[in-house]
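Example record

The entry below shows one chain as it appears in the dataset: sequence first, then structure tokens.
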Amino acid sequence: MTLAGCAALPLSHAVKAQETQQVDHRFAPPWWQTAICLPDDEQKSLVGKEGMLLYDYRAGAEVSHKFQTSIAVELPGKSEWLRQELLSPRVPIVRTCKRNGAVEIIEEAFARGTPREDFILVQLRNTGAVETAAAPAVAIQSGAPMKFDEAQGRVEIGKNTVVSASLKVKACDAQGKRAALLFEPLTLPARGEVHFAVRVRRNSQGAPDPLDLARAEALRRQVQEYWEKLDLPYGVITVPDAGVQALLESSIRNIYQAREIKNGLPAFQVGPTCYRGLWVVDGSFLMEAVALLGRTQEARAGMQYLLSFQQPDGGFELIKGHFKETGIVLWALTRHARLTRDKQWLSEVWPKVERGCAYIQSMREHAAADPKAPNYRLIAPGFSDGGLAGPHLEYTNVYWSLVGVRAAVEAARWLGKTAQAEAWQKEYDDFMATFRRAAERDMADDGHGNRCLPIPMTQRGLTPISGSLEMGCLSLLPPLQKAQWSFLHAVFPGKLFAANDPLVTGNLAMLRAAESEGLVLDTGWMSQGIWAYFGSFYAHAWLWMGDREKAIRTYYAFANHASPLLAWREEQKPVGKGNEEVGDMPHNWASAEFIRLTRHLLILERGEELHLCEGLPAEWVRPNMVTRVQGGSTDFGPVTFELRVNADGSQAHVTLETGVGQAVSLSDRLTACPTKIVLHHSGWSGREGTMELCTGRKTECDVPLRLNYSPQRHRDTEKGF
């Protein structure tokens, strides 16, 4: 079918496109680290920006960026760093390029599995017209004891690390925590080059064989082939923006590199260093991202691991005072059940849902002792996270507990448990009304005329809570945007509020007034810092509230805070404002968020309706461009969606198939059609509005496009500007 009333506009009305959104890493952190380890690897090997291998992360280590061991290739004098890049988004072979006088240094770092070894392949290339000499060394820094094995020409670090090279060792210079394997000087003819290899063996039994350069180069080719053939869910989301596609594929790879198998189940971990473990909120979104990519069985196994942490009282509290974790799990498991359309599994874990709801109700009862207390019938003082510690009276635990109960109500209705749904609905209604009264009491002005709700309760009333620095005096009040991550989650995926809710519009306006580099400043632990993947929470809220253009701009701002090695640091300073850093890297909640946000810009469930292209960037609708989601999981079963622009850019062909996709073996797999399928074409076709597609198994339509269309210029032209 053809979009009714949407004939192509005359070319005389065409306007030039504004500057396009693009991924250029303009806000990259000043220093980064990149994972080269294998999927589910126990050894989380990392490469620093300058090409060094980094091991043994310790929060208090002083050797190199909080790593106890650093291994790097060096030449005498100062080398100039030129660039660093991945072999490809799917292949974590890290190439670092430097210059030392006339000598160009190219290092490739990679890891192999059995035995577990890391390598640096080094190429020294003389760019000059005369012969020159180079005296390379392997510089080692470590807080662990180091021993030089002269006979083997290697250094042993502690009990589990052996460093060797393919060059003959001349000497070992050791001083305290530093050592250097020194080699005979190499002669580089004019325009000539020399190659050698460095190997680091970790946690392997037996003495390593002598390192042979040819063998190391063969292993490098094998490692590349391994990654290129590895069965990860790369093909599910395909977009015509190469920068975005690279970030998507790197995000997928990084999630699997950070993951580990524990108790026979996959633990979807946040990162390789300070956040190497399962966090309830991070892990829940990581598992949702994997499920959205069609890997529902892996997400199911990860969910099983998460559910194993439920306490006898029904609650989840992996972080002390993080009472919100129970609500997060209730949302996560019910969301997983809907994405897999698996009522039988949900019925099997239903006792966990019931115990979780009972725990939230008991928390509310414990907060009911004093009717005059600010948190009366809400939640006890707890840990906010995202820039606010505690314990203090606050709203993050309230927001997520509300989301959890709401999710349980919807799940009960889905299973036909009508009486239970009605009882929990009454609990939810009372909980929400209690929250509304408290929120009205605690609303504040942000200084820009925006009425918003701070996360600490009675913030302007200065009610002190034991252990809370934020409540001590007016001068110590935190910025209003601190810990608002939970508010954004309450908007989406929590869906607690209507689009025109004053609390939502006020809070979003407050956050918008605090933006820097397209994201919100000072939302996390770093003072005046940028929490990069907060941008996904922020963009999701704008998308859910119907502002597609703001969501897209925020999406690209989020993308441009990644490093050129296609991963994110948790928090960093704005460009030029300092080198401080907070959190892990690669931070894989960020990876999950980029996957989730890309998917939701293209496909979004709104209750029982399926909405397409709400956040499709206009830059993705150019001649011959293709945007596709192949067999992605939705609340309505697997969906394949494609938007293909013709050769002259005058028309887009849309195809949608439901109930298709990857093979699954989950029990009680159900196929359910949405009540409505809505295609949004505002912002990219040249005309405002939506169209409704048929809800059958397969539907197709053509959308005429306005050439050189720009949403902002289109509005300005209509206004007579």
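Notes for this example: The chain has 15 helices and 35 strands. The two ends are 35 Å apart (CA to CA).
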